[in-house]
Amino acid sequence: MTRILKILPVLFALFIFSCKSTKPTTSAEKETPETVEEIKIEKEKEIDKDVSKEENIPDEVIEIEGKESKQPPLNIEEFRAAWVATVANINWPSKSGLSTEQQKQEALKLLDFLESHNFNAVIFQVRPQADALYKSELEPWSYFLTGEQGKAPQPFYDPLEFWISEAHKRGLELHVWLNPYRAHHTTGGEVTETSIIKKKPELAIELANGMWWLDPANPETQDHSANVVMDIVKRYDIDGVHFDDYFYPYDSYNNGKDFPDNVSFSAYKNENGKLTRSDWRRDNVNRFIKRIYDEIKAEKPHVKFGLSPFGIWRPGYPESVQGYDQYEKLYADAKLWLNEGWIDYFTPQLYWQINQYGQSFPELLGWWESENTMNRHLWPGLKVGLGGDEKNIDETINQIMITRGMLPESKGSVHWSIGPLLQHNDLAKALVEGPYRKKALVPASPWLDDSAPEAPKVTTTIENDRLKMNWLVGQNEDIEKYVLWFKYEEGNWDYKILDGNTNNYSLQNVVGEKKRFMDKIGITAVDRLGNQSDFEEIDLNNE
């Protein structure tokens, strides 16, 4: 109750904020499902409590291209993801040089945590410094994996293949996270002969703090990084590709000095280039972002492309915002990418608190939403590393609730990072007992595909006070999940999300001291892009 009372002023402020225009007045760090038959009756007795907390939304019929689409009784879509950073061994593996079995066990611990806390996606860093945490012919094995750049894990396995397989077993999407330009991190060990710094020294630039950066203006850089992305897209069963905020490097990496790209800029000017240096740098990044999006869609349209830029586009947008100017310092015109729809989901790193003047979380989220003219997914990045005390737990939960309120059509958040969620048990517990109490579907991406699968054909029988359900779908349907919808007499709708290989399930037919019988059910099929089939309600009283 204390947490509910604390959030009320926040929600009131959110309502007032949402009534105001966020348009600007001018144009202008982070690195098992339940078994089918053996469902305990005691578990089913908890339905009374679960159902009473769910919003009961009336059935809705939507007209789509001349056809009536019957909507499910509840909106259960929300993207819930966490970053898993491998650079500097931030999250995984805990240190370089662990055995293959130790690495696997650590990975399973992280994935089990996400599944048990009702997340539905993981963003896994596979290219921290022009290297690979997977088998690659283009780049060397990562130092952060084996302790030596270019050395394969022993005994051999492919970590990315393992992560994908285990994530999918747990109902989690896996998005690969790559740094397109960083060639060497300060914690990345010795630069070996396998590094791109040695193989193609004309592409790499050393910075004052010891990092190396690939020149974003060099066509070979763009070709190489694009080839790395597409190699993964072609060979692995991933759900998304993800870039974060590292484009041109932060100026602090070079002691405040300008990025040393005189050679490539002079070559551009000698070819009658007309852009200023700043515009030219932004153009280099812009063309690369669009290229990546187009190439992914040409190869595998269902693979989503996500970007997680610095949370502020420019100071003054919106008017009261202060802080770092990524447009002029990182040469990242993130607003343009969102405006043009060169992404499928957009995750600005809004690592500030709700009431922080100059960088207010809801104010920045509202401004980014005002720029989301192509209606892509806007799933902000939240910083959960502030601690596990009550104040920071409330802050995290309030930010999730604000995001839900401001973006009801496509709810979602990405947590930086998985480490604090594991470290602070009270925070993790508050999430799974609060906003993440029930599992959720990843929101659909209708601009990629809006063809819903066929509704399952369901048969029911009652045996020993249990309702047994079996269902079939069309042979050509590619189903990722099923949603079992059910309602008891005088109760509200509830649901269970099941694996796409499931085709039967059973529920206790009678629950509670008042002997409430199962009243209605329905089963919907969900494809890989989140499209959900029509909801066909079955009234068990008429069966």
UniProtKB/TrEMBL annotation:
One of the Pfam families matching this protein, by short name: GHL10
Keyword Signal among record annotations: yes
Domain Glycosyl hydrolase-like: 78-382
Keywords assigned by UniProt, alphabetized: Signal
Signal sequence, renumbered to the chain: 1-22
Gene3D superfamilies listed in its UniProt record: Glycosidases
Entry-linked PANTHER family: GLYCOSYL HYDROLASE DIGH
Keyword Ligase: no
Domain of life: Bacteria
Protein name: Family 10 glycosylhydrolase
InterPro entries documented for this protein: Divisome_Glycosyl_Hydrolase (IPR052177), GH (IPR017853), GHL10 (IPR003790)
